[in-house]
Amino acid sequence: MSQEFETLSENAKKAHLETVARRALPRWGYAGDAPLTLLNISENATYRLDRSSGEPPLILRVHRTGYHSRRGVMSELAWMKALTDEADVMTPQAIPADDGEMIQIIQTPAMAESRMVVMFNFIEGKEPDETALLAPFRRLGAIAARMHIHARDWQRPADFERLLWDYEHSLGEQGNWGRWQDGLGLDAPALAVLSELDRLLQRRLEAFGKSRERFGLIHADLRLANLLEVAGDTRVIDFDDCGEGWFLYDVATALSFMEDREDVAELIAAWVDGYRTVAPLSAEEVAEIPTFLMLRRLLIVAWIGSHADTDLARELGPAFSAGSVTLARRYIARFGP
Fold this sequence. Notes:
This protein is α+β, with helices and mostly antiparallel strands. The chain has helices at 3-6, 10-24, 70-86, 134-153, 167-170, 188-208, 249-254, 264-276, 283-287, 289-306, 311-335, and strands at residues 36-41, 45-49, 58-62, 103-108, 113-121, 163-164, 215-218, 227-230, 233-236, 243-246.
């Protein structure tokens, strides 16, 4: 992350990111003052570009600095295209700029930074309704299975590069999202419980193993906000976190921020049912899903701590840490020594 960018106020950060987006627009032949609407700021800033021609809008993504290399982003785009072309999984497709390049580099010398910018086609759809999730979770399970089958057999580009989501790069010293110990509102008793959870997760993940059937290329953020549904068809967006991880981590991400719902068991069962319509999933693997739910939960505790200035982190705050401790105690009671 750009050090100078980090010193800006929240409003100044948003203003800067919009400036980068507007300076990128002419690379695709659009005026810098074209109608641009901010959709989301998390790792990246995402905008909707409305076109005066009446054609469907486009999506412009301004990358944060330091999270991915150019090769990493090209690898993401390559898998998204392959999933759409080869696995019947609809994803947004990158649109080449006027120079033929998918990724445009926008320099800001005054802040000693450069940012990658990518334009995508717009995909219709709405986020699944949280009050009626059984059918969407069955569809999501089937889609996840198609993605995992494709990932196992896909011939990747020679220079393919993505994040690693093993234990060390999730909860260890090389964690992609920082240290969970730096989460918000963690006092000594909470740290003790989550430390016990961390040790237990590490042991169980090592025992579960990383065979080709269990560990490979995953989306790594299949939460509801990254799913679009139209007439019973589910589309998948935002592959920014995709990388090498456990396939079952994808079901855990689908339940992000919902791990304490009363119907979690039913949602997991629906996902598993959908998955098994496409690919096998053993009873042993299904029994380990709670481990991946807690892995994801602890990862988000880390993310909140390292992204405390984002709207989502402020919304979740210390309450998310407290809820994680409650869930950790239940998991330890069930799976601990």
